[in-house]
Amino acid sequence: MSQKPALSDYFQLHFIVVIWGFTAILGKLLEPLDSSAVVLFRTLLAVIGLGVVLAVRGLNLHVSPTDRWRLLATGGIIGLHWVLFFAAARLANVSVCLAGMATSSLWASLLEPLILRRRVQLIEVILGAVVMAGLYLIFQFEFDKVAGLIVAMLSAMLSSLFTIINSRFTQRYDALVISFYEMAGALVAAFALWLIVRNTDTMAVDRVIQYIPETPLQWLWLLVLSLVCTVYAYTVGVSLLRKFSPYMAVLTVNLEPVYGILLAVLIFGNSERMTAGFYLGTLVILAAVVAYPLWNNRPRKVKPQLPTPL
């Protein structure tokens, strides 16, 4: 953190988080466009947008051949994450989708020790149990939306897996270069999934499904999703990390489900209003998510040490 953030920087950081919370709403607004198609065209437009940004900034796209394939494969994970993310919002609603996504920290606490081979911390086990209690409350009161919640939790797992794997590249390459290759990988994965779903979707008989945007409004929402929610939010987010500590950034990003649920209620009204049990369960999950960085950044007592003998 090279410089102290101004008040406008705090507003900008929260604005970026609001934008990320808006993505599930855009997925809902794009219906009946299939989730795989949403991700396909989102990543296509994002790759073009990132390519323009890279060209303007004069950044070199060179990475080692091995890392290029790894970045593309990592992008495939985020592509699948997005497909499940938008599918969850449609199987249930935006609020349930974002509640499921709030379990990302739980998945990270489970996956990180396995992938990075570090010891599991007691606080992670405790907060994981708290998250499970919150999920139990949601399941109890919103049983008809269980499918959407499970899909959202799987999406959260892939998001956490992506973040853990991605951390290995951030020290070696520019963030925009990493993002360009990963968006390209997500594009390839989304295209493959789009082909499979388009040729095997048996539900198309019962409802109208689009696999290509057909209206100007759909293209407008896709442009907002790709250029504003992906390219703009990502590039601004990277610049803000120079001013904020990682702790402050993570703590603020944890507000994404809160902003998203509030926006969903304002935009969609009664279809997004849930039972008191749902909001209580979501509050329990968010409390655990916020408690984790607070615990890790608590002041620690320094044990007095005997002076070193001369």
UniProtKB/TrEMBL annotation:
Keywords: Membrane, Transmembrane, Transmembrane helix. Pfam families: EamA. Residues 16-139, 147-290 form the EamA domain. The chain crosses the membrane at residues 12-30, 36-56, 68-85, 91-110, 122-141, 147-165, 177-197, 217-235, 247-270, 276-295. One of its GO terms (cellular component) is membrane. This is EamA family transporter. It comes from Spirosoma endbachense. The lineage of its organism: Bacteria, Pseudomonadati, Bacteroidota, Cytophagia, Cytophagales.
